[in-house]
Amino acid sequence: MPELSRSQLAVYGAVAVAVLLLGARAIRAEGNSAAPPPSFERGGGELSVEVGGGSDVVVHVAGAVARPGVYRLPAGARVTDAVRRAGGLRRGALPEAINLAARLADGQQVAVPRRGPAGAPTAAGGVAAEGPISLGTATVEQLEEIDGIGPVTAGRIVEYRDGQGGLGSVEELDEVSGIGPATMESLRARLQP
Asked: What DSSP letter does each residue of 178-190 carry, written as one string?
């Protein structure tokens, strides 16, 4: 077998690196839904933690979907994209109870409720009614159950959330007209992002 020159070795090495990079990219694009492990950097006496890239959102999809779990999606993705990534709706799901067109926010939970006996909706994943309500999917009726929230304020919250394309934290509701400090305390106690 003839001996390879340095330039031939460099070309073969470059091709091998390109193939490896393309393969890694293809594997990631096939739906690797797990978030990459955090990377730790030590610099200037501080420890900084970086989790994933800035262009993705990580959401928890729960309830009446085929594969509930935590998924990474591109920024700007919609609730319908998260449901599709989780394998789609299961039999008995109530997609009309959530806003499938809402933009996803990082850290959001998408809870797809199920039909209960006689077609009544049940809490996603069997969560008790007195447990925290998902801010990303809360209905006006669910918000009205919170102390200090009436139908008008509940409507404003849903309108604000949908207008923003979702919310990343309960604190963002401070921008909604009619919500004061006491109401914010009630909301923090009953809502989860």
From this structure: T--HHHHHHHHHH
